[in-house]
Amino acid sequence: MTGKFLSIIYGTSLKVISKERLIEYIEFCLEKNLGKRIKGKSALHHILPRAKNLPFGDYSNLKENEWNGVHLLHKDHYYAHWLLTESIEHISILSSFCAMHFKDIKLERISKEMLIDGDLFQEKMEKRVELFNENMNMIVEHEGELLSKYEIIGKKVSKALNKEIEVDGIITTTAQVRGKKLSKTLNKEIEVDGIITTLGCMRAEKSAKTMNIKDSNGLSIYDIKKIKEKETKSAIIEFEGVEMTLARKYSILSARSRKKKQNEINKNVSLAKMKKGFIFDIYYKDKLIISNVPYLYINKNYQTLKGLTSFSKLVGKYKFFWVVKKPFNENFASVEELKNKIGKIIK
User: Which of 63, 144, 246, 326 sits a CA distance of 20 to 30 A from 23?
Assistant: First the structure.
């Protein structure tokens, strides 16, 4: 049976880091198999993991592939997952083990004495972060564009959050609705140990305490995080045939993304020739949005018109904003008059 598992695993593109550990993992699972579930004491384990981004989807259904499932005591289940991280290098395998490390203690499935050494677990966590960043920075084609997975997720989230919806007869966005709900929840008053506080304050205090817990070297979680970030960003990598730091690579990708967005804005937003004085017509995708706008300050780098930022909400639909600065031309008596005019156009 061990040979069957090895044959399937080596038939994939997965990176096996230790064949000896892999054999030990498979044989451990088969040896410790209880044969049936023991309520509250055991867990059903897939020897070939069922994570969606692992190449074992054909064997995830245990009714059809009984040989791939074993019932393990919680302590053996934990150890099996650790052996798997020692056998195959993959973000899903590491993530699963790291989550189990905390979850099993929280649910009292295993005791602290059964956990692997703290320094060893920290190495697993660091490797998980490294693999995650490598995966998310991978450039792939998306809708005709070459983007990192971070950028793709950002686009999808932005699209979802900026989707216009109607709530109680008012046009708003998903982000605004979520923001209001979250604000209401966090600002709700509660009583803790006889003291009136809010959920937001409680979370902030708990987070601050956690981040300031110091280890044997006198470093807090926050300190360690900053050190690791600095080390990661200063790491030397090769990007497009050139050696550079990871921070430099991020800077280049970010600059390209900004330039791309700027080019898109430049295609869609245009100003008609300046009329007498400081009067403009503003167009979006060749559509006249507003005419005779007085005394605008134009930031040519971003092709946005800046000033009183409250106007940005009115024209967010057009992915750019403009605002009038004082003094106003005689064509408009006040900011409110211009606001009303823009508001009518947007609606």
Answer: 63
The chain-wide mean pLDDT, for the chain, equals 76
Count of other CB atoms within 10 angstroms of residue 126:
14
Percent of the chain with pLDDT over 70: 75
* Amino acid letter for position 21: R
Burial of 97 (0-12, 13-18, 19+ CB in 10 A): buried
C-alpha to C-alpha distance for 95 and 127, rounded to whole angstroms: 10
**Domain coordinates in residue numbering, the chain:** 2-136, 145-231, 269-346
CA angle 186, 190, 192 (to 5 degrees): 120
Distance (Å) of CA 196 to CA 29, 183, 208, 307, 330: 52, 17, 19, 41, 54
Confidence of residue 290 (pLDDT cuts 50, 70, 90): low
Confidence (pLDDT) at 322: 40
Q: Tokens for 148?
A: 């990192």
Rounded distance between C-alpha atoms, residue 129 and residue 179, angstroms: 29
State the pLDDT confidence band at 97, using cuts at 50, 70 and 90.
Answer: very high
Rg (CA), the chain: 29
Look-up of token digits 């995650």: 132
Backbone angles phi, psi at 244, to 5 degrees: -160, 170
Residue 195: exposure state from Cβ atoms within 10 A (0-12, 13-18, ≥19):
exposed
Rounded-to-10 torsion of CA 260, 265, 266, 267: 90
* CA 157 from centroid of its chain's CA atoms: 9
Residue with tokens 């052996």: 83
